Amino acid sequence: MEQKAPEIIFTLLIGAGLISTLCVLKFSGAQFRQEFRKITMFLASIVAVGATLGSLYFSEMRGFLPCDWCWYQRIAMYPLAVILPMATFRQDRRIIPYGLVLSAVGVGISIYHYQLQAFPSQGSSCSLDASCTYRWIEVFGFASIPMLALGSFVLIGILLLAAPRPWKE
What we know:
By secondary structure, the chain is mainly α. The protein is built from six helices and no strands. The longest helix is centred in the first third of the chain and has 23 residues, at 5-27.
């Protein structure tokens, strides 16, 4: 399975985003952490739009057929790519609980889909044309499309949890 540069770049971006966000939130000074929290909705918007464009790249440019579980992940991600930028532009942080629910649903779907790929002998209800167990990509021996989606949902969730809440001010 030949890897292309975008697959590696997507994987590295998600991994770097997760690691750097966790490091900032855990190990940085209070002033830096407070400044970072001001841009977390913007960053979550970028992740959601990037994940949406990435999924469209895989299906439309690379020709990968999305399986049923890929579609479910898209159903959770695509609204985030619309509502988070709109809320960021309007500076409306009241959207955070809705974004967290969509992220949590996406995490659950992604975990289930990833385990389908990890244990393909259990079978699935997906069609033969778009198998849920087939790995279209495999970066660094473990990162498949469901893992990329999982990383994106987790990163969005962490960023939204770190965002200042209007009801706590």
